[in-house]
């Protein structure tokens, strides 16, 4: 690999001039700058990023903070890995790296984030698992740390964010079920205070009101976001005198417990109970019938997160973007059973 000294010798100009030209300094003659850039490409020169980082007080590293949980650990998660992989690929094109900052479920999120910021190990942060009232947003804003959130909070803020279309999931799913003839439709929600749960609930209530459907609090179940949560949900629904004919799942892994419990009860998914999950998950391909869910382009989402945080780092307005999905309907939904 060509060094900056070798590049300067090739061009017969000083190292300082080469450095200023490569860094876009205004005091370099435009013709000289073009000569330097062309020669750098020709000779395969790559700047020493470590040295640059030390001089600039930067790390060339972006952190993504993810809260670990026993639910994810038990079931695995194929959401973040594709997103992180695509984000890293895009960041690498700009000489940045992405590191995962896993906050233990037993740790205080603000204490953890304060430690990360205090150590200066990243230039900017992507926050996930956004709460309705998320103190991390205020913490980073006050400290002047560039950040972007994967998710929205319930507090008005001018920060950059990208979020999945949770409202669209509920609206579209309920509309599909109502068109099939369903009137009593249940929904699962997270037990934690993540904001997506509040968005799902608010949209569910709003849809029922606008379509003059009765609201029954017994059909709103806050359960674990895993297979066990699915078992809990079906047990609660089976105990009702007036059972629902359809169920929306806030997390696709819940479907494993739902399918298992219904099978044990001698009931058929799509016939006795229609089921829709939020996101299509290849890990659930063994379910029969396959789960009706939304295809979400995760690689493109990861690239968008990378582009967004780079824009914030440059001091440009970051994105405020709803990330859509496309419904993939299967035999897990159908008309309600006849009385």
Automatic annotation (TrEMBL):
Whether Transcription regulation counts among this entry's keywords is yes
InterPro entries registered for this protein in UniProt? HTH_LacI (IPR000843), LacI/GalR-like_sensor (IPR046335), Lambda_DNA-bd_dom_sf (IPR010982), Peripla_BP_I (IPR028082)
Which keywords fit this entry according to its UniProt record? DNA-binding, Transcription, Transcription regulation
Entries under Pfam families matching the protein: LacI (PF00356), Peripla_BP_3 (PF13377)
Q: Which domain of life is it from?
A: Bacteria
Checking SMART domains in the record gives: HTH_LACI
Q: Which SUPFAM superfamilies match?
A: lambda repressor-like DNA-binding domains (SSF47413), Periplasmic binding protein-like I (SSF53822)
What is the source species? Kushneria indalinina DSM 14324
The residues covered by the HTH lacI-type domain are 2-56
Q: Is DNA-binding one of the keywords?
A: yes
| A GO MF term | transcription cis-regulatory region binding
Q: What is this protein called?
A: LacI family transcriptional regulator
